[in-house]
Task: structure prediction
Amino acid sequence: MGKVYLTGNPTAKSVLESVSSSNGSPVCYDHFAFRTFGVDGHGIDSIASFFLDFGYTQRDELRIFISELLVDELNSQSQLEAEENKFIKSKKESFANSKEEEASKDKLRKQHLVLDQQQRNIQELKHSLRTTRAGMEFMQMKYYEEFSDLGKLK
Result:
């Protein structure tokens, strides 16, 4: 688990690598701790779902534990900063969603262009088939006329 987490989180990896024990040997760790904010959308559930989605199960013996900072018990300045962070995160998510929506609309426009081109190609093909059919019917008529003329010559 440590390798997976540290590979995906280079900051945590560099912190762990820079910390050493008093005798210079690497520090051994037996758990990870995450601190969340006790604000809607930023509490324990916001990070626990990540681990649950990856197959971790909730137990009494946790090697990963998640705690929650009770924002409403902080001083007013800290509460304001927490709310500002929540607002900034919300704006970033909104921006990302609008980018995804824009990309989706662009993809849909491209699909419509392809569909329109296919419809034009179908119409051209139908026209070509009608022209070919008319030409074949004309050739068939001429063939019968010539065949009929050959019969009159005898």
Notes: Residues 102-153 form one domain. The CA atoms of residues 44 and 54 lie 16 Å apart.
